[in-house]
Design brief:
The chain is α/β, with parallel strands linked by helices and about 220 residues long. The chain contains 3 helices and 19 strands. It is about 20% helix and about 25% strand.
Length: about 220
């Protein structure tokens, strides 16, 4: 069975050609086509959503899979790398800027919201107060579990995992598992990067299975 990236490589030329043709289609019609793509079979629907994404997003890499019923707001402020999957029923709001790196997987029913409400003017209901944007940046090789909430102004470091149901309201460092409400680091899964002098040899990689076997690997929750 071919992997998704192999299928993409096979049809890349056709997908890029369709994306270029969609430059002639106005944005409101493309958004309407995005909604209708949910009714198509799996492969044609995913292909159409990819072509529309390349047309509307600020940046979109290769081999990006968007599932059914994914809602995107402020397309022009959305940047997505290559080999990314965003599964069904996710909500991506790029009002404050949203950047998703390479090799990122976002499980179903997760929300990424790059703005927040203010309540400073008590003459107005909170819902009528201005909103403020705060960019979200997800670095490469990140796995976000189902039903997570990623809030404005945070970064998620590379090779980190966000456990299902977590609410991320602060930056997550690289190489950790974060869980809970609000999300906190609960385990180190990769050695933290240390600054090295130019020309210095790279550190030896950890032995397989060494991570997570001592109490020191787990931080207090």
């Amino acid at each position: 069975m071919m992997r998704g990236r192999d299928v993409f490589r096979k049809y890349k030329g056709l997908l890029l050609a369709i994306s270029r043709m969609l430059k002639l289609v106005p944005k409101p019609l493309l958004v309407w086509m995005w909604t209708l793509s949910d009714w198509l079979p799996d492969m044609p629907g995913a292909a159409l959503r990819y072509c529309i994404l390349r047309r509307l997003a600020k940046r979109c890499g290769d081999n990006v899979l968007i599932g059914r019923n994914v809602e995107i707001r402020y397309w022009e402020r959305l940047e997505i790398g290559s080999n990314v999957s965003v599964h069904k029923q996710c909500y991506l709001d790029a009002y404050g800027g949203l950047e998703i790196g390479d090799d990122v997987s976002i499980a179903h029913q997760t929300s990424l919201v790059s703005f927040q409400h203010t309540w400073d003017d008590d003459r107005l209901p909170i819902r009528d107060n201005p909103v403020t944007g705060g960019s979200i940046r997800i670095h490469r090789d990140v796995w976000i579990g189902c039903g997570c909430r990623i809030l404005s102004g945070v970064e998620i470091g590379s090779r980190s995992v966000v456990a299902a149901g977590a609410v991320v309201n602060r930056t997550i460092p690289p190489g950790v598992v974060a869980a809970g409400v609000p999300a906190r680091q609960v385990k180190q899964i990769a050695a933290p990067e240390e600054p090295r002098l130019a020309g210095a040899p790279s550190p030896s990689p950890p032995q397989r299975g060494a991570v997570g076997r001592t109490a020191a690997d787990k931080l207090p929750v």
